[in-house]
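CORE FACILITY INTAKE
Project code: CF-77B
Contact: R.S. (postdoc)
Sample description: multi-component assembly, two entities in total
Requested service: structural model of the whole complex
Turnaround: standard
Below are the sequence entries exactly as provided by the requester. Do not edit them.
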Amino acid sequence: MSKKSLIGKRTINSNRKKYGVGLLGLSLFVFVVLALRFSYIGLFNNVSDVNLIKKAQNLYTQTSVLKSKRGTIYDANNQPIAEDTSTYSMYAVLDKNQKSVNGKPIYVDDKKRVARALSKILPISYKRALKDLNPADKNAFQVEFGSAGQNISLTTKQKIDAQHLRGINFIQQQSRLYPNGIFASHLIGIASPVTNTKTDSTSLVGQMGIEKAFNNYLTGTDGIKKVQNDVYGYQLPNGVKKDKPARDGDNIYTTIDYRLQTLLETEMSNVYAQVHPSSMNAILMNAKTGEILAATQRPTFNATNKEGIGSIWRDTLVEDQYEPGSTMKVFTMAAAINSKNYNGNAYYQSGKYNVDGNVVPDWNPNGWGTITYNKGFALSSNVAMAHLEQNMGPKTWLNYIKRFQFLKSTNTGLDGEQSGSIQFNYPIEQANTAFGQGIQVTAMQVMRALSAVSNNGKMLQPRFITKIVNPNNNKVVKSYPKKVVGTPISADTAKQVREHMEDVVYKPYGIGSDYKIPGYRIAAKTGTAQVSNGSGGYASGDDSYLYSVAGMAPASDPKYVMYVTMKQPNLNGKMTASQYLAQIFNPVLKRALSEDSARATSNSNSVKVPNLIGVSSSTASDKLKAAGLQATIVGTGNTITKQSISSGETVFKNRKVILLTSGTQRMINLKGWSESDVAVYCQLTGLKLSASGEGVAATQSIGSGTIISNNQTLKVKFNKN
Amino acid sequence: MKLKRITKDLDYFLLVPYAILCVIGIIMVFSASSNIEMQNGGTAISYLIKQLMYVVVGLLMLAGIFRINQKQLRNAMFISATGVFFIILFVYLMVFGKSINGSAGWLNFGGFGVQPAEFVKLYFILLYARVLSRDEKKMEVFTSWKSFLKAHIKTMITTIIILVLILFLPDLGGTLINFTIVIVMILASGVSYKRSFRILAGSLALAYLLLYLLAFGPLKSLGFLKHSYMFQRVVAFANPFVHANGIGQQLVNSYYAISNGGIFGKGIGNSIQKTGYLPEPNTDFIMAIISEELGLIGVLIIMGLLCFMILRIITIGVRSNDGYSSLICYGTATYLVVQTYFNVGGVTGILPITGVTFPFISYGGSSMITLCLCLGLVLKISYKQKIARREQQAVKGDY
């Protein structure tokens, strides 16, 4: 039995030796296993499908993104219309464990002091701030201050910083600044922060207008800074370093003239507020170059505070197609004259005309008897145009429509540009197009076609961008020079058409007398088109029309072309649609013409405006006096923050230059000021101008010396003296 | 014993690898500690000096235990007293112990932390060598496991008490190493080797099955275990990358270190992982740092040297006809193998991390001294064997 014990057949000693040999094998096995495992990791750098090299590199590498700047959009005078800025949002750390390396608290330890300081700088009451600093959750790590603590500007942040408030911190945010409020808002567009879910980084992306269409140019390339650090943030001695600098986005230089644009916006808003049309377009273009100097649409929005941004997202100037109505007659005339099918002194029976069993009516169905074609144009007779179309024949007319490049996109680069359409199958449809019905066009197409008339036959590409510049090397990435896109008519035809357009304004029977501008010769054509209801018929009712005016001046050799449309206004009987359009057309065109003549005057009588920004007000005053200019200083501060005419511009001697200083603004006496000077004053001080009368300022609704605030309305009556 | 005679019969197959490992250890502790001031305090130089000191003290201990009459170590009173001493010590530690790295198993002597659980390994080796070698004369002990247990009931109870105390310090690694030493030694008592192997293989399989079930199988959701620190280590072992910023941090960063090193390493002093990414770079994870700086080649050389020592120790045990000596050798070898296995297993992710040091290389005095004492015992056995063999040959030569 003892042999069958635990020991077995062998002796204790032999068992132990054999056991030892086994132990030897087992130990060897253990070491081989460990060595293999070590080798596997060391050789393949991979454990359970995790790439160890990559993971480790990620662990060491501190990648910080160097934010690139989005390109700036400038106006014609290189003033920013849209630019990048940083805003800050503020938070306060409350957790009492937050202490700096040397043990000082970095949390809010004096809540009352912080609340008091914040209430003085931010739009937040002391009570409210104190309440925010004492949240219901006693263990809250940090708190924010509602809207008061958001979108804080750099200057405000610096003011808060100067208070040395412990526990108050800021997060920087990239945002886009549009300083001018309502200012070609849809054309310029907006860019807003979009977070890329992949990289979790936020950048500005254009959503509308130039911001969207030229987003690729405007967007910069973020840089990367890669440093390999140890766990404490010290750079590893042989760590990989990789730097890629941020490349800022390209700057876009537009053709928008700040003063003309602002004036246009003011007048448009004015009219829009009176008659609430469903939409309005207005474009002012340089007749010789195709540069769009001012352009806007209604409804629009305030780009600074995004007020009204929801109403419409289209650039109606290029995206909305409509039947232009009688402004089209300019091109019918041009086509007839150019194709030698026009005899202005020939007579025709006005009132009604039968085309293939369909009646073409004049706007006055009784007509004006038998009149000449010249008079028919000035009276905006549809019948005259139907005859002209028939004289030319549909083939020739359609050919001219194509030569004026209707039905073809203006290719300005904006999103969703439309090319228009036409109904041209039957004689009545063909006749209708001659007075602007049954053809859909965009406002920009009308501008392009008008340029052929204004520029002696050479049709120009409308453009609102002159160049795109890479700010990193100041190289011009893309430039948009003056471009002739066709010659639909001869110079002589153009001249004749302009003369007929003058008749519209100046002949006693002409229906465009509202567009007279004293001192300048205007050529214009009005339009009243029935608005299609979208299902083949036309909308009915008093205000179912699209009113428009297309004009150019000076008529003999136009420098400016202007086109204004107003769709479905609620006319109240006080004034005609034409008079409302004139409220926009006349002052803007007049300002453009007057500034132009100021520029054109001889050098001896003109001076260059010096740079006065940042200069003390007394020095600025002296400088202007030395240059032979009048200085009007507005505000109580000591340094100039804005000047009404940019430095480097050439102006008449004795011209008034308004200088804005910081500090409280008090109303000044405007008596004797010109309309444009008053408008500029209001722009600078942020007042809303409500002007009446013509001439120089006689009375003002805010007494001089009164403290004024932004957006206050100033009523000024002008008198001819 | 003349010194000249001693040097002649010393086992250089043990001494040379031991010396090389200690030197590598000193260098690598210094290198691995270069950034440790940030983590644990103390400069790299202070770690270098301390490790140097531990090596010197270890060497002195080795020489000391070599020189003394080892009969004293077999003294029943001495062994029992040591056992009682350890029990009291651990109870004291559990109540008043200073906690380092979540374990209370440290005594503090003037700035030096002493880990008594390390010395317990030597105690168990001595205890079981003594107890089991005595059995050779009492065959009735081997009648059945029941009789075997009955004969060693006192020893077993002492063992269990001490193991449980260590486990609750808590020091899981220490408990498992001691437990394995005890089991391997019991199976070396002279029972049928086939039976021993079956039991050994069975226990290993069972242990691995349990680990597998805990890590990946149905046991992983055992509620009562979930929050224990031991179970957390199993979780980290099972899915280190999921917990890369928490409990899996050590293993994941150990992987990175090994991966960084590749075959030839980044060169001494060039570890990135020691700069704060990998905790305990100079103790538990020194092999990962060595792998990063010296590469796979460095690691394999170190493991090769240690493996050679272990095989040498077992061979000495196999050659010995004296049960006590054999058991000492087997115990010491098991100690080294298990310690290495637990350390490298943890570092390379084939075992949960148990917080065990690498023999002769890792920074630490208690471990170094215990290892040196064990090695001293084996050296003495080897020395005696050599003398005996020479005497035998001399006798043969007389023929």
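Facility notes:
- Chain A has four domains: 3-44, 70-190, 258-600, 604-719.
- Chain A has a mean pLDDT of 86.
Invoice: internal transfer
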